[in-house]
Amino acid sequence: xxxxxxxxAALSVPEGENLVLNCSFTxxxxxxxxxxxxxxxxGLTSLLLIQSSQREQTSGRLNASLDKSSGRSTLYIAAxxxxxxxxxxxxxxxFGGNEKLTFGTGTRLTIIP
Amino acid sequence: DAEIxxxxxxxxxxxxxxxxxxxxxxxxxxxxxxxxxxxxxxLRLIHYSYGVQDTNKGEVSDGYSVSRSNTEDLPLxxxxxxxxxxxVYFCASSGRxxxxxxxxxxxxxxxxxL
Lengths: 113, 114
Fold this sequence. Notes:
The structure holds two protein chains of two kinds. Chain A is an all-beta fold. Chain A contains no helices and eleven strands. Chain A has strands at residues 4-5, 10-14, 19-25, 30-38, 44-51, 56-59, 62-67, 72-77, 86-94, 101-103, 107-112. Chain A is globular. By secondary structure, chain B is mainly beta. Chains A and B meet through strand 4, strand 5 and strand 9 of A and strand 4, strand 5, strand 9 and strand 10 of B.
C-alpha cells in the first residue's frame, strides 16, 4: 500500500527566504505526483503536476522536482511572501490508478512578515 | 466560469440519521471523487465515478454510498451517520483522460455527528 509522508508537519520562515518542502512515497510505481495548496477552510488548489517521466515542473516562483527511483519530491518556493502561508499537500497517483490519489498529511507553512 | 460546488458547507446531525452531501460541477467532467479529510490521516478516498451510472468504492467506503445519474452531480449519502464520520468532506472532479488527472476541488462540507 502506498504511503506518502511530508516532513515537517509545520514550518515557519521569514519573508523573502527561499524554502523547500519535502514529500516521500514508498512505492515508486507512480503515474504522476501533484502538489496542492490548501488555505484554512478552503478546498485544495492544484499547483503543479509532474508526470512520472518528468523530472520537474515550474510555475512562477514554484518549482517541483521528482526523483521516482528514490521516492522523493520537493517543492521549492522562491522569495517567499506572506501570501504563501497555507498548507501544502503532495499526492501520488499509482500507475494504472485511474486518478485515485494517495495524499500526504501536508506541511503547514507560515511566512513571517 | 466553470466551478465545483458543495452543499451544505456545514451540517450538524445526530447519530443514526441519514445525511446527503451534494456535489455539483459545471466543468462537464466525467470523473468525480469524494474524499474525507481528518487530522493525522490526510485525505482519503471514499467513492469515485468515471461517468454516468458508474460508481466505485474507495479506501474508506463503509457507511457511504453514491449515485451518478447525470454528469454534473455526485451526491454522497451517509446511510446511518456515526460519530466516526465527523469530518470534512471534499468533492473533486477531473475532465482529462484517465491517468492524466489534474483534480479540481470543492470548498468542502464540514459534518459533525453528535
